[in-house]
Amino acid sequence: MAYASKDLSVLAYANGFTLWHYTTADLAADVDTTGYFNGASDLLRVGDMVLANCAVGGSPSGGVLVVATNAAGVVDLANLTPFGTANSD
Predict the structure, then answer these.
(1) Residue 40 to residues 16, 44, 82, 84, Cα–Cα distance (Å)
(2) Nearest Cα to Cα of residue 70 among 50, 40, 31
(3) For residue range 22-75, what is the model confidence (pLDDT) as tens digits?
(4) What are the residues facing 76 on neighbouring strands?
(5) pLDDT of residue 53
(6) What are the residue boundaries of the structural domains of the chain, listed by start?
(7) Strand blocks (E) in the chain
(8) Per-residue confidence at 85, pLDDT binned at 50, 70, 90?
(9) Angle of CA points 76, 33, 70, to nearest 5°
(10) pLDDT of residue 77
């Protein structure tokens, strides 16, 4: 799949920083690939954070992504840092 603008929303904004939420059926490894968020290059700034719900509808994973670079319309986010640990039940 690919980036879908309808799935990116602002949670908070202050002092030039934006906290975003993004939900997708795509795997985290795809979402944090350079270029995935190019369609949002006019919105995302270096240092912004994206709370992500990935692989929704499959084996979901959630965590935070940080915008590492955004230059000439090419956006790169750091790899997903997951929330919590694996459930051992």
Answers:
(1) 16, 6, 22, 28
(2) 40
(3) 999 999 999 999 999 999 999 999 999 999 999 888 888 899 999 999 999 999
(4) 69
(5) 93
(6) 5-82
(7) 8-14, 17-23, 49-54, 61-71, 74-77, 81-82
(8) low
(9) 10
(10) 96
What is the C-alpha separation between 28 and 34, in angstroms, rounded? 12
- Euclidean distance between CA atoms 57 and 32, whole angstroms: 19
Show Cβ contacts of residue 23 under 8 Å, excluding neighbours closer than 6 positions: 7, 52, 53, 56
The SS3 call for residue 39 is helix
Write out the two tokens for 82. Answer: 């997951």
Q: What is the pTM of this model?
A: 0.89
